[in-house]
């Protein structure tokens, strides 16, 4: 993230569409590091929304408290899942400290 940042939550915007075989993840694990070598668990969730027949975009979120420069996500999934955005939220403003957007 370019430097050490305070982190309050980490989230992922995923998509599902059962008719196309696309599912929300089963779970998400998040770690943090200040140096890229020593990793500390930040948290995990399996609280993604239910998959839908029609196209649906939903957030999965992990709340916590840490200071970090590096934030890797690990996803467990059934088959296909689409990832639209990853956000690291920090500070009192709840604005993203970092955002990674995925485009085709």
Coarse structural class: mainly beta
CATH topology: Jelly Rolls
Largest sheet: 4 strands, antiparallel
Under the CATH scheme, which architecture would be assigned? Sandwich
Write down the CATH class: Mainly Beta
- Counting DSSP H or I runs of 4 or more residues, the number of helices is 0
In helices, the fraction of residues equals under 10%
Mean pLDDT level: 84
For the largest sheet, list the strands in their spatial order. Answer: 4-1-6-7
List the uncertain runs. none
- For the secondary structure, the number of strands is 7
Instruction: Name the beta content range.
Output: over 45%
Summarize the structure.
The chain is mainly beta and 104 residues long. It has one domain: Jelly Rolls, CATH 2.60.120. The chain has strands spanning 5-16, 27-32, 40-45, 56-68, 73-76, 82-89, 96-101.
Would you write up a description of this structure?
By secondary structure, the protein is mainly β. It has one domain: Galactose-binding domain-like (Jelly Rolls). Helix content is 0%, strand content 53%. It is built from no helices and seven strands. The chain has strands spanning 5-16, 27-32, 40-45, 56-68, 73-76, 82-89, 96-101. It has a four-stranded antiparallel beta sheet with strand order 4-1-6-7, with no helix packed on it. A three-stranded antiparallel beta sheet has the order 3-2-5, with no helix packed on it. The radius of gyration is 14 Å and the shape is elongated. 22% of the residues are buried. The mean pLDDT is 84.
